[in-house]
Amino acid sequence: MDEKTISSESKAFSYGLNVIEGSEPLVAEYIRGELGNQRSQLKLIASENYASPAVLLAMGNWFSDKYAEGTPGHRFYAGCEFVDKVETLACEHAKELFGAHHVYVQPHSGIDANLVAFWSLLAYRVEVPFLESHASKHVNDLTDEDWATLRKAFGEQRMIGMSLDAGGHLTHGFRPNISGKLFDQRSYGVDSETERLDYDAIRNLAEEFRPLVIVAGYSAHPRKVNFAKMREIADSVDASLMVDMAHFAGLVAGKVFTGDFDPIPHAHIVTSTTHKSLRGPRGGIVLSNDSDLAEHIDKGCPMVLGGPLANVMAAKAVAFAEAKTESFRSYAQQVVENANALAEGIEKRGGRLVTGGTDNHLVLVDVRSFGLTGRQAESALEDSGVIVNRNSVPFDPNGAWYTSGIRLGTPALTSVGMDCDDMDDIAEIICSTLEATEPSTTTSGELSKAKFNLSDVIRSDNRTRCAELLDQNPLYPEVGMP
After folding, report:
1. Active-site residue among 276, 279, 407, 449?
2. Helix (H, G, I), strand (E, B), or coil: what is residue 139?
3. What fold, for 62-323?
4. Is a pLDDT exceeding 90 seen at residue 171?
5. Which of 172, 206, 298, 346 could make a disulfide contact with 161, Cβ separation 3.0–4.6 Å?
C-alpha cells in the first residue's frame, strides 16, 4: 500500500507498537493478539465497548509522567499547568454533557467513584454535624476520644441497594466488597412475577430499615429505573439517593433516558464508569447538583484516591467531547433499538427473557429454557465466536458461579455499525448454539453444571456466520493490522 493511502490512525498505532517492540517484543505481540481477538469475535458483553482511536491515543502520552494530587489550581505538586487545563476541560465537557453542576473526573474506576461518593455522603451527613457539635473545624482538631466516637459513627450507617441476583452490583454494599464492610446493608429485589422493581416494596424496606443512603442503578437489569420515585422514597426517610449509572451513562448522555429516567436531576450524587455505553477510557466519574456535596467530592484525593491519572483524564475529555455530538445521540438510540431487536429475535426462537424484554442496552436470557447453566451457555457461545458473560437471574437456584442466565449487551456491536437486522442474525446464532448444546454427564451420573457437548458442525457453521458479520462491519477499519 502506498504510504499516502495509509491512515494517520494506522501510522500512529503501527509506529507505537514498533517502539514497544524495541523494549519488550512480547507486549507488542500480545497487544496485536488482543486486537486480532476483538476483530474475530462478536462482543456482546454489556459492560464493554470500543473506544475511538482518539480516546485510545489520548491515554498514551506525557501526562502519564506527572503527579497531580489535589484539584485544578490547588495541587500538592508544582508543574501542573497542563494537568489543570485538561482536568478542567474534562469537567466542563461532562457538566455540559450531563447537565450537572459539579463533576469530578479523577476516579480510576467505578469502585473508586463509588467510594468517593460514599465517603462524600458520610462526610456531609455524619462528619460535618459531629465537628459542628464539638466546635471543631477539622478531624485533626478532635481529641482521641472524640475521634474514636466519630469513627464508630461512620461504621453504624445503613444502606439499601439492589440485590445481586436481581441485577445489583457488588459495590452497592455487599460483604465481599469494601462497601459491605463500610455499611450495614439490606437489599431490595424485584417482583417475583414481573421481575421488575417494586417501588412500594422498596419504600417499605426504606421505612423499616431507615438507611442513610439508598443506592439505585444496576449491572444486569434490563429495564429503566424511575429515579423520581426513588428520590421520593429517599426524601421520605431522610436518606441520600446515590445513583450508579455506570451501565447506562451513554444512554443518559445520548438523551435516550430523560425526565424521570435521567438520574442527574433527581439524585444527590451520581457515579459512573466512563467506558461501557459511554465509550470512553476505563475510569470513573462523580457528578452532583448538590452544592453542599461538592467540596467533599473534591476531597476524593486524599480521601480514597492517590495521584490522578492525567493521561486517562485527557482521554475522558476526548470521550466527553465525542459524546456531545449528534452522531453519539444517534448511536445511543441505535444501542437501544438493537437491544430490542436482539431480545425479540431470541424470544421468537424460544428463549426466555428476564422481564420479557428490555428498555436499555442489555438483554438477560434465562438459559434454563435450553436446559443449560449460564456457565455452559457462556462457554458454548465462546466456542461459536460469540462473547457474553454468565449472569444470575432473579431468584437464581444456581448461584453466582454457575448461574442460570447470560447477559447480552449491544453497545460494542453498535459501535462497529451493526443494526437491527444484524441483531436478528446474531439471535439465530445464539439460539442455534444453545439448542445444540447439551450438558455432559459427571462420573457419578449427574448432569454437569460446567461441562457440555456441542457438535463441531454447529460450532464451525456459527463461527463462519460470525466472521461474515464481522467482515461486513469491521472493527477499527481506519486502523490496519499494526
Report:
1. 276
2. helix
3. Aspartate Aminotransferase; domain 2 (3.40.640)
4. no
5. 172
